[in-house]
Amino acid sequence: MRKKIALFLALVLSISVFGGCGKKDTSAPAADSAEKINTDYRYEQCGLAYSLPKEWFEKEDVNLMPVNFVNITGDIYAKIEYAYAPTENLDELNDVASEIPVEELMVPIFSLLVVKNEKIDSQTVKDELARFQSCEELPQQNGFHFYYLTDYCATTPKLLESSEKIYETLKSSLPLLKESIETFPPDESSVQAQVNEDKEHLNFMSTTLNGDPITSTVFYDYDLTVVNFWASYCYPDINELATLQAFYTQLKEKYTNINFVQVVIDTPGEETEKIVEEAYAEAGVTFTTIVPDRNMSSWIIDHLNGLPTTIFVDKTGKPLSTKIEGVKELSYYMETTEAMLETAKTGE
Q1: Is 119 within a domain?
Q2: Judging by beta carbons within 10 Å of its beta carbon (0-12, 13-18, 19+), is residue 118 exposed, middle or buried?
Q3: Which one, 148, 198, 268, 344, has least CB within 10 Å?
């Protein structure tokens, strides 16, 4: 069966951002050549542009997992890495309940590192370089070092013969990729601007209480999402689940552009989930419940004064200024939500 290259974001750091990709502006020459290089992926934030070998898109059963980030405060300023995931490991990779580390299910093909001069001797950088046998330094730019790493030498999964052939074929195209790489001064100002903008949004990549994957893209399908924050330790003393379920039901009946979700801030945890399951069964809960990840946990610490708290999020994932703190009546939730819908639509 022919598989397209899968593009999964395999790593998200709470203080990291990464820009979009697209055709490069060919008016900008390569740093080490007067000739212009046509590249398919250009990342202004980290000062790198490159093209993936077209042979990778023509092979069957090629599954590539990119790990991309920019971390303006880290020892490694930026990293772009592509790993090969053998077909026999895809089910395990897509299983959110799997306990097998991701790095044991795929093998890196190449990595591009961007490091500031003052971080060049850090142990983090040394450890990252040591993961590969081959390390080529690319043209430096304005106090930044760039490395092209190949021949991964750390622990790798055992590959079937068919997967081993695919992996070797991918590696054989790496010289073509190397020729396409361009370095240029990273746009640090856009990184900081993106960090500041991200702080205003409720970004997360987690699972529901049922174990299904869920991310902040859940906000994009609605003009407004009502998010209630609660904890298992509130039960049974602070328990408005029946009211929230009725609220959710009314929203579904009246609006197609409003959603409601709950975040239980002290999940995951076996005892915690047992309490939540009992409370949900008692109230007949059917709405979606989100387990907070590190990003959301940080947001909760910075923005919530207590529980329960209900906020309103627009379709870009940005919370509106209005909050509901404490337990309220159903009518109050409906009236406030209707007012917030108009605010979300106008963007005021």
Answers
A1: yes
A2: exposed
A3: 268
> At which of 164, 196, 228 does a domain end?
196
Quote the distance between the C-alpha of residue 182 and its chain's center.
Answer: 25
| Residues 25 and 49 sit within 8 Å (Cβ to Cβ) | no
Question: CA-CA distance, 31 to 43, in Å (whole number)?
Answer: 15
Per residue in 140-193, pLDDT (tens digit) is 999 999 999 999 998 778 889 999 999 999 999 999 999 999 999 998 887 777
Instruction: Reduce the DSSP state of residue 329 to 3 states and report it.
Output: coil
Task: State both tokens at 312.
Answer: 């309103």
Domain extent, residue 267, equals: 202-346
CA-based end-to-end distance of the chain: 50
pTM: 0.58
Which residue type, as a one-letter code, is found at position 58? E
Give dist(CA 56, CA 48) in Å, integer: 20
* Total domains in the fold of the chain: 2
Q: Are the C-beta atoms of 247 and 338 separated by less than 8 Å?
A: no
